[in-house]
Write a structure and sequence with these properties.
Layout: E1 3-5, E2 12-14, E3 18-19, H1 29-41, E4 46-48, H2 64-76, E5 83-88, H3 107-121, E6 126-131, H4 161-173, E7 177-183, H5 187-198, E8 205-211, H6 223-230, E9 233-237, H7 259-263, H8 274-286
Parallel strand pairs: 3-4, 4-5, 5-6, 6-7, 7-8, 8-9
Antiparallel strand pairs: 1-2
């Protein structure tokens, strides 16, 4: 399988990365291990997870995905064959990540997150440690292209990017992580991280994990130019638009065991005109 350099790093990753957010909720541990085995057998060397997973996020299951992956790597003794990526949450009122209090991208919370992730993954380092979503108050879960209020809203206790980046510098020097990545980030956020890294505040961003597919092309508005010129790799998540681009939901179908049937959390792709676009793309794909 083709491998590509991740950003300007020394990591070479396969063109396909296995996402794992279903492990521990929609998939059992045995099913997750079977998916991991299949991916590795086909040449995939890149695995992505997060402290938040599985989805939908809740206290009872949080961290279970990392545990499943850690168990698999320990049983197969294959850590040295893999590029492992995980994530730390941004600002959230959900209090189960930090033992009963909200979480932010401050030093204490990031250190707590990485140590717990390493323990669950049963490894001494992760190759790519990503900020799952910004601490700033911006639209979550996509490629932010519009701020509804002006001037852009901010919380009084917003953690400066320089402060967050400095913590990642500590983690690199401690050998706990190799590289920094961002996710669900905007053009302003990405460029600010890059500028601060140039000042040697912390590590340079290697990759950006944002949504990108036929019906969500907002990455092309500003981020594509930045990533292209700055050698920041795109980890395109949701390439099938949460399953809508498989055709399984065409004409209102609701397959048993599908994410929509189980959790009904696909509203991101249930906007005016979306159903018609999906059907047209799916018809074209079949043709």
């Amino acid at each position: 399988m083709e491998k590509r350099r991740l950003g300007r790093t020394d990591l070479f990753v396969t063109g396909i990365c296995l996402g794992t957010m279903t492990f521990g909720e929609q998939n059992t541990e045995a099913e997750g291990h079977a998916q991991l085995d299949l991916a590795l057998d086909r040449g995939v060397n890149f695995i992505d997870t997060a402290e938040l997973y599985p989805t939908p996020p809740k206290a009872e299951t949080q961290g279970r995905t990392e545990t499943f992956i850690g168990n698999w790597m320990r049983e197969r003794s294959n850590r040295d064959r893999l590029v492992v990526a995980t994530k730390v949450v941004g600002r959230t009122a959900n209090d189960w990540f930090r033992g009963g209090r909200p979480s932010r991208l401050v030093r204490a919370d990031i250190l707590d997150a990485i140590d717990k992730s390493l323990a669950r993954l049963r490894t001494d380092h992760v190759d790519l440690y990503q900020i799952h979503f910004p601490e700033r108050r911006i639209p979550w879960g996509s490629n932010p292209t519009r701020i509804g209020e002006w001037p852009a809203p901010r919380d009084e206790d917003e953690t400066p990017i320089t402060e967050t980046l400095a913590v990642f510098d500590e983690l690199v020097k401690a050998g706990k992580i190799r590289h920094l990545g961002l996710s669900n980030e905007s053009a302003w956020g990405l460029t600010t991280f890059l500028k601060e890294a140039e000042k040697r505040v912390g590590p340079r961003v290697a990759s950006l994990q944002n949504a990108y597919n036929l019906v969500n092309r907002t990455f092309e508005v500003n981020l594509a130019e930045i990533c292209g010129r700055e050698d920041v790799g795109l980890l395109a998540y949701s390439p099938l638009a949460q399953g809508y681009l498989t055709g399984k939901y065409d004409d209102g179908a609701l397959p048993a065991g599908s994410r929509k049937q189980l959790f009904n959390r696909l509203q991101r792709y249930e906007t005016p005109g979306a159903a018609e676009a999906f059907k047209a793309y799916n018809r074209l794909a079949r043709d």
